[in-house]
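HUMAN: Quick job: go over this next protein and say how the chain folds.
***
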Amino acid sequence: MKALLCLLFVTSTAFAQDAATYLKNFDAKVYSLKTKGVKDFVVDIESTKLTKQMNDQQVFGKVKEVVFRTYWTANPERLAIEVEGLPDGFKEIKEELKLSLLGMMDNLIPPTMAQRFNGYKFANGNKAKEFIAQDTTGVAPIPSFVLKFDQEDKLVEVVGQKPIGTLNIAPVYAKESFSDGRYVLKQQTTTSTEGSQTVTIKKVLEYGQSQGIGVLTGVEVTTEQKGQNGKAVSATDELTFKNYKINAGEALKFFLGEGTKEIKKK
């Protein structure tokens, strides 16, 4: 009996290690600016919907273009966003606008599984290529996730069990000519349910090249909300990523001179 218990313990430990190793190997297969050796970049992000809203509301007069100038460095990893194109002042409005963009940062700089599930413990699931992330802090809004991979080791679904409702994330990966054989996130659909309320956010990502490096150039975001009556209300926004400055030290200069404006990336 003692020998059997020891065997079960060793086997369980091996499975846990396999889960962590598998997920780490997946991270190595995903393309990002980090894997291309990018240490420093600046990019302008424009929302056509936001610019139109500003002009419709006429709070700031005629607005030509609202741009989120985004700064990032690798060592240490820092991220900051500045709002360009609006008059001086209006600090609270600008801070709210910055926060609304933070959800796009994971598409610009994809976090690793360890970063995405910080505070969670990985283990093997009930099926092959299925893994469980379990909250170890007791304070996470979603206590557990199930991560599912296909036969090509691509992540195809993440299912979160909320105290009330569920969260389903369905990413679509493909290889591109610039990605050095790594997977590039092309599309992602996130569906959150809570009672009779359902919110679905679909992102379609486009890529191009800057300075010979594959970069994100556009994201089309469609948000659909369904209530108890079953009626769907949807809205679409198009974000453009342009004017990249890569490894030119521009972000470092910003942080050296404007460090207090930093928004730390989690």
Summary: Residues 1-16, 259-266 have pLDDT under 50 and may be disordered. The first strand starts at residue 40 and ends at 47. The first helix runs from residue 2 to 29. The chain is about 25% helix and 40% strand.
